[in-house]
Amino acid sequence: MVNNTLVGYNKKELPGKIQVIGIILLLAGLALGVIGFLTDYVRALHNYLVMFMFLISIGVGSLFLITLEYIAGADWSVPFRRIIEFLASVIPVLFILVVPLIINMHDLFHWTHLEAVEHDEILKGKAPYLNSTFFIIRAFVFIAIWFLFYLLITRNSLKQDKNFDQGLTKRNIKLSAIFIPIFAISLTFSAIDWMMSLEPHWFSTIYGVYFFSGTVIAALAAATLVTVLLMENGYLPSIISYDHLYSFGALMFVFVNFWAYIAFSQYMLIWYADLPEETSWFVHRWTGGWEYLSIFLILVQFVVPYALLLSQPAKMDPRRLKIAAIWLLFAHFVDLYWLIIPSLSPKGYTFSWTDFVFPLMLTGLMILLFVFNFKRNNILAVGDPKLERGLNFHL
Amino acid sequence: MQSNTLFAVAAQFNEPNKLIKAVKIIADLGYKKWDVNTPYPVHGMDAAMKLKSSKLGYVTLFFGLSGTALALLLMWWTMSVDYPMIIGGKPFFALPAFIPVTFELTVLLATLATVIGMLSVFFNLPNNSHPLHDTNYMQRVSADHFGIYVEADDKKFNAEELRTLFLSLDAVQVDDIYVPLKEKYPILQPKFLVFLTIVFAVTSAITYFTLNYLLYMEPFDWMVSQAKVTPQEKVETFRDGFGMRQPVKGTVARGFLPYKFMGMPAPAESLVNPIIPTKETVELGKRKFLTFCSPCHGNFADGDSRLRGQFQNPPTLHSTRVREMNDGMIYHIITNGQNAMPSYAPQITREERWSIVNYIRVLQRAKNAEVTDVQKVKKEPVKNGQ
Lengths: 395, 386
Hints:
Chain A contains 17 helices and no strands.
């Protein structure tokens, strides 16, 4: 624990009850999840996939935000980079979380049924890519790549707390430059593998970008929420002002618009061409009750946050930002649910209580990971050469 | 050229932080008419100047929403009310297709209004002169210094006090800026008028020449003259001078086989109708009958068309004579012509003529139906429980 007198930062420990809440949520989610697996196996599996994708969004999205800060040379986000690093710490956990999905792959993906693929010309054509062996290799390789960059970048960042070495920042800038194209490719193929291949006959070339837009929203919202909560309770230096928060609000607003732009681009092209092999995916999301969720998604992911974040004061008001962040996390959950669950029951919506179980587990897991990291490390990147400029940031 | 009227006291600083410090003091002292000039946006300046948030955002919002409304109204009125057209099987009011246009117009109006509003309302442009123009102060603050000036119009203005204040705040230089003398440039000088006249004459001459001559000269005439024969054109190639040629003798067009009993009162052998009367062929016959036959013979072959009484009356086709003719004879009359009726062989193909014959038979049968015809339609008895 290095206390940097330069910025007047003294570490304040989190109250123990947060850890207790995290444990309770995780255990409750875990227990209910196991019951869900035993009673409503296939639906629970799909809901587990929603949670898994959400954690990829937060973890890998946070790593993307870190690298973005390095590559863009941003000052304002330096005081918050540690928070984002803590959120990215979910990446190593993905190694464990992916196992149940790999084991139960056969009930998740139609294309794993070899006897069905044999009589299906389209799936036969896709078999060189969509086959179990290559899929498992890809899944682990992607997580391994993310983990590698997470490890290298955060290790350099933490080392800097002790030795104040500016060279580590330079090294992280190089790592970020390498990571960003790898991130683009790995995230695209992850989206194709885990979600698009649930309906293997359908395809959309913009799908990866669509998932990317949601990913960044979720990561930004998580970072904003934690930042505002820590700020309100005095865990961050008091010099951090509303000017810092503005960029969080503005970036969330940008990516809400970006999401709408990409989502609409995907919809409009398919709607206009009206080709049966392309429309099937949207038809599944427009029958038997799913149409209400589709409309709800537009409201929840675009219209409401757009109105909430439009004005300049709204982007700096911690109370409003907190609401917007919670809302956008919920919106990303709805988004992923909308992407995954209608593939399971394309005929129409059916109720299942397992839908509500995994968010508990997810929240508990994130709280525990955060507390775990918070205890061991500084919440401020005290050794970063840009920290002082970041703290004195003004619009 | 400057007057003795003082416009402002301006100070230059060599560091943005020093300027911010000065700005805070000036703002706290309660000056109203003052501003800063920096070579690039300085972070934290808005707060130091105690600026209220700009009203420009409302201009953007208003015009952005106007763009949205305008685009939607335009497309709704033109595409789904005034001139509805089916495009790609989509509804007349196809919202997804309208969104890109709506988005573009929203952005366009919002941006234009923001820029124009910013320049004209907030910056008071167009403004061709300002006392700060062409001063040493302006040269430095647009390159490497950070400047602040307080106008002499300000109620609290005291030049000496400000000078000492700025110098005490480590200003590199403090200048007095004077209002420049107004210079007069009379527009209606003889030289200018002559110049204007010449420009007018030359422009008119060029425009006249372009519109009346240049556009009809090669190669500006949109390829009007080409090395090909256009319809109705006279040519030197052929002795008779006709550009449009007749087909070679003996050419037979598809569906227009030569008829071997041409010019005879009746076919020398009995002709057999090769077209079986099916729904399709009868409908083809009906279409051709209504096109070629009905103008004289009437829509139902009663010989009651509008042409009646204007020249030789066309006969009804329901007379006993026509009804007793065989198919070949009717075909012969259509092909060959009879009395005032010309030959229709060049217009109607062989199959179509036979189909017309079939349709005439249908009309004749319909006009002379008997009770037994109705009874021929069998009715299946309906059994209970089925």
